[in-house]
Specification:
single chain, six-stranded antiparallel sheet, elongated
């Protein structure tokens, strides 16, 4: 029987096949991962771009042993929404973490709707917008 194990001292090589699978499943979104004790990998566009990667959010997810959704203030993904989850052992202790660029964090619906309301208010003022002659049915 073949077995694949991740431990707190796993190397970047130990993470390669798992992170490549995540990368493929997620349509080649950037994926990162590391063990608690060793740096890991950063994968982008189907290629391992860093074999000694340790991002600040990976480290934080391991230290806090919890899922983190944020926009990092430093590092390679500074300002880009990411989501990072700890990898836990049988006792529930964080032994590593895997992260991905969070495309759902890029589109914040509430903020989008707020901006749309502000734009309409600025363009149209108190008048209905678009005005009757500019509506699509008037152009047919």
């Amino acid at each position: 029987m073949n077995r694949y194990m991740i431990a707190s001292d796993s190397s970047a090589d130990d993470f390669e096949s798992v992170l490549m699978a995540f990368h493929s499943i997620l349509s080649n979104l950037p994926v990162t991962g590391r063990s608690k004790d060793n740096p890991g990998l950063r994968i982008e566009q189907g290629v391992i771009v860093d074999r000694a990667y340790s991002g600040p959010v990976l480290e934080e997810a391991i230290a806090q042993n919890q899922l983190i959704k944020t926009r990092p203030t430093e590092g390679v993904y500074k300002g880009i929404p990411v989501v990072v989850a700890p990898i836990r052992n049988g006792n529930g202790d964080a032994i590593g973490a895997i992260g991905v660029v969070d495309i759902t964090g890029i589109f914040d619906l509430a903020t989008l709707m707020e901006h749309q309301s502000l734009i309409l208010r600025e363009v149209c003022g108190a008048d209905p917008c678009p005005i009757e002659t500019e509506q699509i049915r008037a152009k047919r």
